[in-house]
Amino acid sequence: MSTTTSTTKTILRAEGFSCPSCVAKIEKQVGRLKGVESVKVHFASARVEVMHDPALATTEDLVAAIAKAGYTAKAAAF
Amino acid sequence: MNKVHEWLHGRWTVPVVSGLLILASLASSRLLDAATWGDILMVAAAVVAGTPVVIKAWNALSAKVIGIDLLVSIAAIGAVIIGEYWEAAAVTFLFAIGHALESATLNKTRSALAELIAVAPDVAVVLRDGEQVEVPAAEVITGETVLVKNGTKVPVDGVVSGGAGSIDEASITGESIPVEKATDDKVFAGTITTSGFLQVTATGVGADTTLARIIHRVEEAQDAKARTAAFMDRFSAWYTPAIIVMAIIFGLVTRDIVLALTLLVIACPGALVISIPVSIVAGIGRGAKDGILIKGGEFLETSAKIDAVALDKTGTLTEGRPQLTDVVPLHADVDRDELLQTAARAEAGSEHPLARPIIEAATAAGLPVVGLPEHTEPVPGKGIVATIDGHRVAVGNLALIESEQGHDTADDARVAQVVQELAAAGRTPMVVARDGQVLGVVAVADQIRTDAKEMVARLHEHGVKKVIMLTGDIEPVARAVAAQVGVDEVRAGLLPEDKLEAVADLQRQGYTVAMVGDGVNDAPALATADIGVAMGAAGTGVAIETADIALMRDNLLKLPEAVSLARRTVNNMRQNIVIALGTVAVLLAGVLFGGVTMAIGMLVHEISVLVVIGNAMRLLRRRKERTGTRSTDGTGSSLTHDEARVTQPA
């Protein structure tokens, strides 16, 4: 609660998860980005939770990284 | 150019290119008799379809996961090495097609949730400094006034502060009949106005809306693993390496590399891996669309085993709002009106829940209940004694009246009889006495919900063996309600800890117990039960978060629907496991006894995956039996609770 970093949590919803191994792929691609602290990919609900510094890695960067892994994702308000 | 780029990265690019190469290969070797070209094209097809598989297998391996991709990669590369180009191309091509179909259909099983997300509102029109401003829905400030026009989505959770209209709340409650809204009514983000114009004071915005809570809850539920799913995960973790070892041993022993590679392909656990998640995702998604939130796979499995349901009476089987039912004058000089007015005036200073219906009934009958009594003295467990215009008035049970000084014993037998009759009919009788003289008896009763009886019947229909009513109310009242509703067992006069004990007792008898309750006094029992069910949870965030099953609408028939959905989902999971394991067993036999090639194996295998997904998608279909549209008594489907009124005495 008292951290001063500007880390925010962004939730993205992806399309086209077909196998649990997609999880590792996306986590790797997104985790590679500068400013990304942690990535959690939920297979069943096709949801990606990213803790990141929006100044270093924007939401667009995250979407692009997921696209690089081969999936379409959209940022969600909640 | 964008279109081309999109297509190149699309779902179908790889299978289409690979398929065309296979066709070209077949054409060149058969028609042109160019065997070398045919082989080259076939290998090219295998490379196109196989490269993504090899990359995936490599990625998975670097994450220390031995998966299906690895099996297929080994098989395809092996096939190329030993010159079985057609097998290599066919296996990778079919695998690619299967994957494209899987991802397309899997998205369908997630569609119920996707629809929920789609109803999330984008923009809101708020009043700022008297002007209408359009802002993103998530940027409305709590307390601001939001304007909701006809045909638009409600952008926030809030309370109506002006205007009137009707709202389709299907996205929250699963009920598609529009609900009328007026000042002070609650509205939810994501619902749609079908008429009228509303001004709404925002109470919850963005992630703090009921819709957001539902979406979160559903996603968490879909991600939470069922016990069976966890078991299958462990199973496939050793299953795949075991198959590789088996294939190697087989290859070494028989010296038949083709057979060993074929084994690898047919043993792919694809259908097995997704058999349970697809059922859970589809089942939980279906429930969410119908206003039934289930906490997760594990709770789905437990809910499927429910064979005893414990119901709280007040507020669950009944409205929880007692109404006056009887006014019986027992004194020659006193008529109905005077009796009711006397009782109402005595109760005017009382906080007791039974005072309100008496006062309301008197007011409704045009009998003024002015001012407070000169003196009011509640007698715990018995009633109330008040002083009105210098007279001592007592309203309460027989014990209270008998303790009244100077009370006339002449009528005791008759009073006792009336009291007993009313209690036996499920009402709570109160004797009214003035200066020791019994004036008569008034009675109140809680209204039984119209759908209570049907709910109990449907629970039995869906395999619930015992429906038991738990109540703090007195025995005769409880029995009367139970008889009308048709429950199997009644336990009356219970304190909160007694309710807990009753649930625990059922569990000791071997039942899997669901407890339905609403009040704080049910909390211990709800926590003890195998499944705690909260009703009418749309208004309360806490219920959505904590209950094992949250029924968004205050509709009793949602309970049997939830039990039925849980059973169907778990059955679906079992069917999928049988399909997946059965396919592997049949293929294994087919390979060992000859006849099944690598390509056939892959084809059957991919078909089994699609069958498993298709089977799960059946859960998404809405069952014919629809809540609220069926009526056991043939009076139609109107479910206004007022119609449940206990018959008024003549």
From TrEMBL, chain A:
<dbReference type="Pfam" id="PF00403">
    <property type="entry name" value="HMA"/>
</dbReference>
<keyword id="KW-0479">Metal-binding</keyword>
<dbReference type="InterPro" id="IPR036163">
    <property type="entry name" value="HMA_dom_sf"/>
</dbReference>
<feature type="domain" description="HMA">
    <location>
        <begin position="8"/>
        <end position="74"/>
    </location>
</feature>
<protein>
    <recommendedName>
        <fullName>Copper chaperone CopZ</fullName>
    </recommendedName>
</protein>
<dbReference type="InterPro" id="IPR006121">
    <property type="entry name" value="HMA_dom"/>
</dbReference>
Automatic annotation (TrEMBL), chain B:
<feature type="region of interest" description="Disordered">
    <location>
        <begin position="624"/>
        <end position="650"/>
    </location>
</feature>
<dbReference type="InterPro" id="IPR008250">
    <property type="entry name" value="ATPase_P-typ_transduc_dom_A_sf"/>
</dbReference>
<dbReference type="InterPro" id="IPR023298">
    <property type="entry name" value="ATPase_P-typ_TM_dom_sf"/>
</dbReference>
<dbReference type="InterPro" id="IPR023299">
    <property type="entry name" value="ATPase_P-typ_cyto_dom_N"/>
</dbReference>
<keyword id="KW-0547">Nucleotide-binding</keyword>
<dbReference type="InterPro" id="IPR027256">
    <property type="entry name" value="P-typ_ATPase_IB"/>
</dbReference>
<comment type="similarity">
    <text>Belongs to the cation transport ATPase (P-type) (TC 3.A.3) family. Type IB subfamily.</text>
</comment>
<dbReference type="InterPro" id="IPR051014">
    <property type="entry name" value="Cation_Transport_ATPase_IB"/>
</dbReference>
<feature type="transmembrane region" description="Helical">
    <location>
        <begin position="577"/>
        <end position="596"/>
    </location>
</feature>
<keyword id="KW-0472">Membrane</keyword>
<keyword id="KW-0067">ATP-binding</keyword>
<feature type="domain" description="P-type ATPase A">
    <location>
        <begin position="120"/>
        <end position="219"/>
    </location>
</feature>
<dbReference type="InterPro" id="IPR059000">
    <property type="entry name" value="ATPase_P-type_domA"/>
</dbReference>
<dbReference type="InterPro" id="IPR001757">
    <property type="entry name" value="P_typ_ATPase"/>
</dbReference>
<feature type="transmembrane region" description="Helical">
    <location>
        <begin position="12"/>
        <end position="31"/>
    </location>
</feature>
<dbReference type="Pfam" id="PF00122">
    <property type="entry name" value="E1-E2_ATPase"/>
</dbReference>
<feature type="transmembrane region" description="Helical">
    <location>
        <begin position="235"/>
        <end position="253"/>
    </location>
</feature>
<dbReference type="Pfam" id="PF00702">
    <property type="entry name" value="Hydrolase"/>
</dbReference>
<keyword id="KW-1133">Transmembrane helix</keyword>
<feature type="transmembrane region" description="Helical">
    <location>
        <begin position="602"/>
        <end position="620"/>
    </location>
</feature>
<keyword id="KW-0479">Metal-binding</keyword>
<protein>
    <submittedName>
        <fullName>Cation-translocating P-type ATPase</fullName>
    </submittedName>
</protein>
